[in-house]
Every structure is written in structure tokens, then in C-alpha cells.
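Q: what sequence does this backbone want?
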């Protein structure tokens, strides 16, 4: 599904210093996998996730998605591919406070770059029903618990029917039970909907939900 070949990501610190957040990383994420990426703070996990999620391009090396090198795609083509392909879940939920739960779930369809072959609102309502949030559809995010907010964020990722869900520290702002509930939900989506899941976490018990664990240390995968 997505392959990284000898990928490095560097940042210029000052005139004569370059910092490598990732050094020659090679890995492959296969369709329907459930992978955890783990490692200490500052090791390069989020940088890696941004590359896998097509949010960023490498400084060197290749990111290959469905057989295509992303270096050969325009920014516009890359955005379209990302929009069709990837759903994101973040530590801070990133819900829009002024929008209701239903509106938050619908938001990606408003910016959709592809023509949807389903009615967005019907799909949002179906997801909210299926995942136990339908009574909250008109509530604003600040009326929800952290666990509920993160569940809304997962549904917002699901509405575009992504092949891949990338979650960066999705349990980082949750109590332990809500955190495990979110991981179980991601596990269910992997098993039942065959969605590929990549979870970034520095917590070992959260990483353990992955069927494969990728360890990052000092910008390298070992
Ligand atoms: N835009 C940037 N400019 C400079 N340094 C960065 C930038 N993004 C990340 N870094 C550095 O790269 C390293 C890895 O960052 P990150 O991938 O966010 O780590 P993690 O998610 O594992 O905590 C850190 O030392 C961080 O300071
Ligand atoms: Mg991070």
C-alpha cells in the first residue's frame, strides 16, 4: 500500500547545521495491516507519520504509494490522493468547537476533492448510530467527554471511507479506559472494515494493540 525507501527528513538548524529527524528509513505498510509506531519523545514518530500520511515529502529517498513515487506527483495530485486515501486522528481531537457533532463528522465531505457516491449526511447519521453517538449529534464538542470527542474524530476520519487511518497519540489526552476503548474501536475497524491502521504512541500497552510494532529511535527504525 505504502512503501518508504531510504527516506530521510532533515531540517536546517542554522547556516552550517542540518538536523536529521529521520535517517534512511525503509518500511512498508501493507493493506489491512494494524501497525503501531512507537519510540521516545523526539525520536521522529510524528515526522514518520506525516510522510506515511502524505502530509509531507521526504528530503531524500522515496515514498511510494500504490506503485507511484510521490516525488513525481504535483502538490495538487498529492492532496487529492491524501484526501481519498487517508483519515487522520490526533491527540488533541481537533474538533471544531463551533460546529455540532454531526457537522464535525461531515466536515471532510465539505472539502472533498472527489465526487462522493453516497449522501454525506445519511452516512454521518449511520456512523453516529453505529458507534453510539447519535443522541449527541446536535451537541457541541465541549459537552462531550474526551473519549466521546475522540470517537467523533474517528467518525470524521471514516466519513471519507479511507483505506488508511493514521492516529498520532490518539490516547494521549484520554483516561486509561477511554484510551483502551478507542484502541478497541480502531481494532474493530481493522477487522471488520479491513481498514489499514497505523497508530503512533509512546505507550507500550497501547502499542500492543498493533499486530506489528515499528520502533523508532533517534530517527531510525530498528
Ligand atoms: N519543522 C521542524 N523543524 C525543525 N525540527 C523539527 C521539525 N519537526 C520536527 N523536528 C525535530 O525532529 C525531531 C523528531 O520530531 P517528531 O517527529 O515530532 O518526534 P516524536 O513525534 O517522536 O516526538 C525532534 O527533535 C523535533 O524537534
Ligand atoms: Mg509526536
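A:
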Amino acid at each position: 500500500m505504502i512503501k518508504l525507501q531510504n527516506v530521510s527528513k532533515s531540517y536546517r538548524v542554522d547556516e552550517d547545521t542540518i538536523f536529521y529527524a529521520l535517517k534512511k528509513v525503509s518500511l512498508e505498510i501493507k493493506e489491512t495491516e494494524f501497525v503501531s509506531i512507537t519510540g521516545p519523545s523526539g525520536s521522529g514518530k510524528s515526522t514518520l507519520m506525516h510522510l506515511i500520511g502524505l502530509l509531507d515529502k521526504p528530503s531524500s529517498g522515496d515514498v511510494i504509494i500504490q506503485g507511484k513515487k510521490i516525488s513525481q506527483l504535483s502538490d495538487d495530485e498529492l492532496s487529492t490522493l491524501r484526501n481519498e486515501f487517508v483519515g487522520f486522528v490526533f491527540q488533541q481531537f481537533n474538533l471544531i468547537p463551533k460546529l455540532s457533532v454531526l457537522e464535525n463528522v461531515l466536515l471532510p465531505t465539505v472539502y472533498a476533492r472527489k465526487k462522493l457516491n453516497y449522501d454525506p449526511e445519511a452516512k454521518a447519521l449511520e456512523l453516529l448510530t453505529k458507534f453510539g453517538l447519535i443522541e449527541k449529534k446536535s451537541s457541541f464538542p465541549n459537552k462531550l467527554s474526551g473519549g466521546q470527542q475522540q470517537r467523533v474524530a474517528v467518525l470524521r476520519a471514516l466519513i471519507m471511507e479511507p483505506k488508511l487511518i493514521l492516529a498520532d497519540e490518539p490516547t494521549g489526552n484520554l483516561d486509561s479506559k477511554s484510551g483502551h476503548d478507542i484502541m478497541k474501536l480502531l481494532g474493530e475497524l481493522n477487522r471488520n472494515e479491513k481498514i489499514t491502521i497505523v497508530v503512533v504512541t509512546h505507550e507500550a500497552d497501547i502499542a500492543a494493540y498493533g499486530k506489528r510494532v515499528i520502533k523508532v529511535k533517534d530517527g531510525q527504525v530498528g
